[in-house]
Amino acid sequence: MQTLRERPVPIVADAGIAMERRGDGRLIPLVILDTTDRLDLEEFIRIHQYTGPGDADSQWATLEDSSGRVALVLTFKKPMEITAVLVFDPVKQGGLVDQIIHSKGLYIQAGREGDRLIKNPDAPKVIVEIPDTGFAGVWNEIFFRAVVQRMRQEGLTRREAKQAARLYITNWRKFGSFRIKSGAPRTTEGKS
Amino acid sequence: MSNIQIFAAVATATAAWLALLLSVFNVFTSRRALRISEQQEARRKPSVVAYLQDGYVAVGIKTHSRVYAILISLSNRSDSNNAIAQAMLLLTYIKSSGTQLTLKVGAEGEPPSMFIDKSANHLRLPIRIDAHQTVSGWCFFAVDNAILEDAHIDRTQMMFVDTYGNETTVEPLIIREYRNNVQTPSHQKEDANPTRASGPNRS
Fold it and tell me: Is the ipTM of this complex over 0.90?
């Protein structure tokens, strides 16, 4: 077990970006972070557009605080040494985490509470490669349990919730696996 | 006690003393051998030392960027061959908000166009440095002006990473400003003379 020293950076919005020229046209999720207390992270995202490709490590973690949340620890080495911890609730943001894992990438953008991608689509963003470090297998179980819990909250029986969860996950992954072939970038938008 | 018995006792005692002396001698010899082998091992430990020979920052010559040109020599002081894999410029700057950040800039693959002097030896990385050898050359780093807007530079460092992953840093305290004489003729007299046999050329 490892203690995270950094405080999590709040996620204020999420979206998805698919571009033909990047990531083989995969739909890569984007999170807008509230960087009010992380001016260093905001500056890192700003300057990254003026520098070449950087170096970053990523690590998934499950939080041992009985909340069932998962964390993504991003450690940037170049062009700046900086760490950002993103925390996700699998029940509310399970689809987002699943898409990050399957697209193997994530855009991060600095912002404030209330910001949306559509408000400023040209805002500086940093794309981070998120390779599978063995978390995908663990995540499948967490995601399934989170979707079952959500279905139960909707009023389904345990058996119905499990069936619905399997169907939901299959369809979600089918939707998330689409590839853009040509043309302008397309975006999807959500709210965290 | 017969003479033979006395002789045997004396001979045994003498042999024991000789053995003791020999073992003491061997202790010293083996200690010395250990020290020598430890020194040899220490000499094999990778050790690259960077020495800053000269440095300029060119502002306003390259569009949208300031270019750092730093002449460096790197000495491999160990008994093992080595290589320099990466060179980075570390710029620590402070924003007007008070936030302090350190930017890592990788070396340019090609010298910028204004450094056209063919005699200027560009340090192309990766570069091999055999044991007890020294290499020297210019490293160029371009930093977009937009990065440093609303900020002042607090510290400049150069960092080299060798093939073993060891980092060597050198800190240029004062970097002279190198200006384009066409763009800013009023500064020409103030500039230090950067025209050297191995230095960058004015465009």
Answer: no
